[in-house]
Please model this.
Amino acid sequence: MHKVPAWSFSSIKTFETCPKKYESEKVTKEVGYQETDATLYGVQLHLAAEEYVRDSKDIDPRFKFIKPYLDSLIAIKGEKICELKLGVKKYDGRLVACDFFDADVWFRGVADLVISDGELAWIVDYKSGKSAKYADMRQLALMAAALFLKYPEIKKIKTSLLFVVSKEFIKEDFKKDWGLDIFAKYNDLLTQREMAYTSGVFNAKPNGLCRQWCGTLSCAHNGRNK
Model:
């Protein structure tokens, strides 16, 4: 039986999509990380934004189009924290903030940009996708819940998915007393994940990506292994 590791939004989303895919990526490591042109572009864009906001470094000419958005964020009053690593652990029956690399960390998340100003904060996540059609705010909800634990003085958090290519802002606000409820929404999925680790059985959940797009070739539903 493998030890149940800390979870993140991306990992639990993979488990939700298909436990078998999760197993191949996170447990057996049958499927390793594969960099594509799109992922490399996203990484470079995030780095350019981080260095501009944090260090006032000139933006790579390829990403000049994001400068007006970053300038509007810089103009917001408050401390700017780039790539903030957030950790949460269970302690004495409670969820408490901890170091990202704490030995007992239960949840991990990284916020692209946090702006903190007393009782109010902002969390911004840069997206390099071409459309906000399938925007998923759940990631920012978890970031907000973790930030409330790390900074008890914060009472309200404004979050935004900034789709820099399609020029779209998807926004949602969160209040401090919603924090634990946000984590509670994942209880069923986390219980299922724990049971899978305990039993060693990660069942496949066939979907439209199986035949052509999934890298888990050991799965019977993968169309590329036939």
